Amino acid sequence: MFPTLIGTVVIAGIVGYLLEKSGFTRNGILQSIIICIGGAFLFYFVRLMFGIGFGSAGLNAIASSIGALIIVPTHWRKR
Hints:
The chain is mainly α.
């Protein structure tokens, strides 16, 4: 359980960094990493409590990180 949680955090951080560097978001590197880690934590605990997920912990971390980056910044960004 604990190695899965650490792996989820590492994968979420890498996804946040790569998506910021690629131009997918314009939040800042640290902000994107924090958003991704928060989304990955949330989805990890939802998977533990309810069993909802994609099967692989790594795939869950990637999907939840990208989902958090799509939802959070567009909700708060002023146009």
